[in-house]
Each structure stands twice: as structure tokens, then as C-alpha cells.
Amino acid sequence: MRISRAAVLAVFATTVLGLGAATASGPARDSNVAATEAALRELESSPNKDSAAEFVTRSRTALRRAVSLRKQGDEAHAGIADELAKTWADSARALLRAVDIEAKANAARLGATDAGSLANRERALLEEGIAQRGRLRAQLDGLESAAKLRPLRTSAAAAGASDGGSGAAEMSVVPARREAGAP
Fold this sequence. Notes:
This protein is mainly α. It has a domain at 5-117. Helix content is 76%, strand content 0%. The longest helix is centred in the middle third of the chain and has 75 residues, at 75-149.
């Protein structure tokens, strides 16, 4: 019969844990149990305690089992149960940290999405402003070309004729058109 290396390591680790727990002194064991209890109280007051409820329940069960084993005089197995309770409490704490980190990552992702949406909106507004500027520029160019095509009114009589012959002798100042080669 051949025994696998994993089985040998598992038996060795269990033995070492059992011996370590059996040799633990009373105050060290009590402080370990107190630390586990404190961690469980902290976990139960967490806003995400529902995420780790099963882990907390298993840790409390292991602590009760340790008390029961101590009453029966089985200190070695009671120490293992204490370690198991601590492991469950540490796992619950790690799970709650992971839940918090995941919530922060989700908030950061939503913030990045919002920032992207804001950038897209700003880009659209900028493009709209550029297009409006182009349309206004085209209108101005059209008005300027229309003004260049109209004959210049250089005399007061021509200016009066254009206002319907009201006889008002108003002088309008019209800039003189420059001819090619004129200073």
C-alpha cells in the first residue's frame, strides 16, 4: 500500500497543530480565545455582516466545541477547536475586507464611467460650438460678399434716393472700395 505525499503532509500538519495546541499554556490559550471573541464581535457589528454570517456561525460553533471538549478533559482537541474558530474568524474578516474592496472598486468603476460620460458630453458641446462658429462665419462671409457686390453710394443724392427720396440729407459713411493698385 502506497501513501501519497499529500496524505503524509496532512497527517504531519495535524499532529504539529495538535501538539502545539496541547502545549499552549492557559493564559496564551485564553488570550487566543479572547482575540477570537473580539474579532467575532467586530464582525457582527459590521454593516456587511450578512456576507460573513456563515463564517461567524462556524467560528462560534468551533468555540462552543472547544469549551465542550475542555469540560470533557480533552485539552488537545479543544486547542485545535480554538485554532479552527480563530481561522474561521480570520476568514470572515478577510471576506469582509474583500467585500469592502469590491464595493470601492465598483464605485471607482462607476466614477470612471461617469467621467467618461462627462467627457463625451463636453466633447459634443465643444463640437457643437465649433459647428455653430463655422455657420456664423459662413453667414458673415456671405454678408461681406453681398456688400461687396452692391454699388457704392458716394453722393448724398444717391444715398437720399436709396431711402425712398424722403429728402433727409443724411450722410452715411461708407468705406471707399480700394481698387487694385490704388494706395
